Amino acid sequence: MSISNRRSFIKKITAASAATLIIPQLYAENKKRLKPLTDFNLNDSSEDFWETVKVQFHFDDGLYYFNNGSLGPSPISVQGATNSYRATLDAFPSRYMWGAWQEEKEKVRKNIANLFSVDKEEIAITHNTTEGMNLIAKSMDLQPEDEIILSNHDHTSAYIPWEVWQETKGVNLVRPKLPLLPKSVTEIVDIYENAITSKTKVINICHMVNTNGMIIPVKEISEMAHKKGILVAVDGAQTAGMFSINLKDLGCDFYTASAHKWLFAPKGIAVFYAKKESQHYLKPLMVAKGHKDNSIRRLENYNTRNLPEYLGLGDAVAFHNSIGGKKITERSYALKTYFRSKVNKNPKFKLKTPENDVLSCAIQTLEVVGQPVSKVKKRLFEDYGIDTRPMSSYGLNGVRISFGLYITKKDIDYLVNALETIAS
Known about the structure:
The chain is an alpha/beta fold. It contains 15 helices and 13 strands. The chain has helices spanning about 5-15, 25-35, 45-55, 75-90, 95, 100-115, 130-140, 155-165, 185-195, 220-225, 245-250, 305-325, 325-345, 375-385, 410-424; strands at about 65, 125, 145-150, 170-175, 200-205, 230-235, 255-260, 270-275, 350, 365-370, 385, 390, 400. The strands form 3 sheets. Strands 2-8-7-6-5-3-4 form a 7-stranded mixed β-sheet, with helices on both faces. Helix 8 (about 155-165) links the parallel strand 3 and strand 4. Helix 4 (about 75-90) packs antiparallel against helix 12 (about 305-325) and helix 14 packs across helix 15. It is globular, with a radius of gyration of 22 Å. The relative contact order is 0.15.
């Protein structure tokens, strides 16, 4: 790409496109390009099908978006539905903010509960994963010298709430170190178990770590912890929607996840799960009329809130279900496998994510040997229009690559060719 073309590309790709985004027009154009998803057999996982999924999303011209782990896009259909809810609300604000949409809201809660195989009375609709972590950390009635276990790979939004709400009271935060490339589930479980003492009250787990996409075995840790009377809270920001999750089977007490990553929901909406037997530990972050409600709805009692995004979450779940959780899970692993097969024999690359499917999925971190990640990230974007997330902590020095539903094998080929050129 020439310097002049590169400058033109950067200018175009970084310009705000929201003002020119006309949802109905985009949707009509995409329908002309490829068949709608409903025209495909449920078992069809051909590249033709995934190319059709890709055009359900709209990106800036020339952008290859491998940064879903930071923030996911909403499909055109979800954007359109959310904008429609917003127009309805603005046409009669008081009616729709405080009453007219009660049944629709409960339908969203029910559909989210079905997605995660739990009861709707165990689901609250919040704003993001961070809110969920604050809700848990502030609620716990802990005493000085009690202990909370959080690994060294937990996200800042997971451990800072515990620092602010509990460490300042004299509660101790225990931070065991996880290996970058563990060889087994048992190896990880043992690290958490060895960190437990008689004073441990809660184990906080990041289901998939933000840094290199390593999956932490929630079910096995929950089983081990509960035998010792310890609560388990899970940060599911990077997993909800990437692959099928049965929260009842995982056995954790609490699970908080932003829906605007792998569920492709409107921004600023999230899912919070609390097992019925553990809900009594939780206290609302915000109180208003209705705060004495004993149901899980007391945790989302904001009075005025972002209802178009709330209802748009329902459309995001419908989009997810139109493809199918099983198919999405298989695709997530297929893209991971395809990518690794393209790079794992090149001595100029070093994969920093575990290979075992039990320990990683659709986020992979890769180092270009001998080059600082900041330089690799910059060249990928400026020369090729590829957006990734640079990871320099823990000695990773690698770009974090996310394989969202809209990524095709052609896109991976393009990415790998770019990485090979940069590496050489």
